[in-house]
Amino acid sequence: MSAARRILLLGGIALAIVGMCHGTWYAVFAEHQALDRIGGSLATAFTHASERNAAQATVALDVYREAKYAHERQVDAHGHWIGLAMLLIVVGMAFDRISLVEKQKLALAIGLLAGATLFPLTVLLQIFSHGALPRVLTIASSALMIATLAITAVGLFANRASS
Q1: Interior/surface letters 120-153, b for 16+ CB within 10 angstroms, e for the rest
Q2: Among residues 8, 11, 4, 6, which one has the least CA distance to residue 104?
Q3: CA 104, 159, 9: angle at the middle one, nearest 5?
Q4: How far apart, in Å, are the Cα atoms of 162 and each of 68, 97, 150?
Q5: How far apart are CA 29 and CA 50, in angstroms?
Q6: Number of helices and strands in the chain (H, E)
Q7: Which one of 5, 52, 100, 149 is least enclosed by Cβ atoms within 10 Å?
Q8: Mind listing the pLDDT tens digit for each residue in 89-132?
Q9: Cβ(106)–Cβ(26) under 8 Å?
């Protein structure tokens, strides 16, 4: 088994474990509190709105928006880690069939693993900072995944065409 294939298979398994551990941690220790905050702030907003207290309703909606945003990022990171891990494992199984030299395959495998690791991390970073940097990092890591997957696809098709 090539080093590149080993990186993808073991990296994919490791990322799946990270994704499952993150999901388990979130479900056990944080999700119920997040859902209570989401529901409570929305109920408070409706209560204040029915009392025609627009200022308090706006504050409660801001709390709702922030809690919902954080919850979605947690769930997205969990799902992306596991989904990208499965993608790495599937690509890893076929990776030796790519029409590239071994050094290129190794660089490609490292790029795939880096993108699959960094993308969910940058999604989580958006919880703590709503500035441009986390979004730029998310876009860059997803672009890395797209580019490396495109190169992988071209390498697979090139091998198939030469067969």
Answers
A1: bbbbbbbbeeeeeebeebbeebbebbeebbebbe
A2: 4
A3: 55
A4: 51, 11, 18
A5: 33
A6: 5, 0
A7: 52
A8: 999 999 988 989 999 999 999 999 999 999 999 999 999 999 99
A9: no
Tokens of 138: 């998310």
Which value, to the nearest 10 degrees, does the dihedral of the CA atoms of residues 107, 112, 117, 121 take? 110
Please give the Cα distance from 70 to 39 (Å, whole number). Answer: 14
Is residue 144 a contact partner of residue 115, using CB atoms and an 8 Å limit?
yes
Residues written for the chain = 163
Quickly list DSSP for 94-149. Answer: HGGGSSS-HHHHHHHHHHHHHHHHHHHHHHHHHHH--SHHHHHHHHHHHHHHHHHH
Does the CA dihedral 108-111-117-123 come out positive or negative? negative
| Tokens linked to 57 | 């309703």
Task: Give the pLDDT confidence of 34-88 residue by residue, as tens digits.
Answer: 999 999 999 999 999 999 999 999 999 999 999 999 999 999 999 999 999 999 9
Cβ–Cβ under 8 Å, residues 3 and 104: no
